[in-house]
Hints:
Elements: E1 9-13, H1 20-31, E2 34-36, H2 38-48, E3 54-57, E4 60-63, H3 64-72, H4 79-95, E5 100-102, H5 109-123, E6 128-134, H6 137-146, E7 148-150, E8 156-157, E9 176-177, H7 184-198, H8 201-207, E10 211-216, H9 221-231
Parallel strand pairs: 1-5, 1-6, 2-5, 6-10
Antiparallel strand pairs: 3-4, 7-8, 7-9
Amino acid sequence: MxxxxxxxxxxxxxxxxxGKGTQAELLAExxxxxxxxxxxxxxxxxxxxxxxDFVKIGSKKYFxxxxxxxxxxxxxxSPPLITFWIKDRVNELAKEGKGIITSGSPRTLYExxxxxxxxxxxxxxxxxxxxxxxxxxxETIYRNxxxxxxxxxxHPIIYTEKTKQLTRCPIDGSKLIFRKDDTPATIxxxxxEYKERTFPLISLFKKYKLxxxxxxxxxxxxxVFQDILKIx
Length: 232
């Protein structure tokens, strides 16, 4: 299935807390794209899962209770399961003629090898752009240990002197909450997972001849966004 329209695909990469989700939301609104959040897909499937539920891919069963434990401990979930869920959602969006932006996928070489040719076939090579938001490990730990999101729509709230006293989302009014897996130990584990399993995707993308642009993530949200727009 090849889209007839010149729809775009933006892949936003970066370590935990680099602002991928925030930039994805801004770009989705600016370019009328669907923000495909891996975490949202995962959480929706966990929310409806019953005891003993599993997804069978090939000859292997992936039990959702086991996958949930991996996620809560800061370890990346099984790539075949994530890829299965993402492909299913991308197919739905492509049928609707929508371009997409991802801020948490792909996360492993397995996912990259499965999803990159899949996206190229649907959207075309020239319509896929990769942005790598670079942030130091120290900044990553600080941001993750302070970040919150709203309970209703998952709006990310940047931690600043002006926002640290907020208890409600300024956009929809719902309660602001911390992620359960945003503990110092788990954050460091996620950083290690990113370095070992996600960052190597950059080399893979180069082999597929994708357009990759690096962005300084240690700026304000507005400045990072402007840097991306300048490139586009």
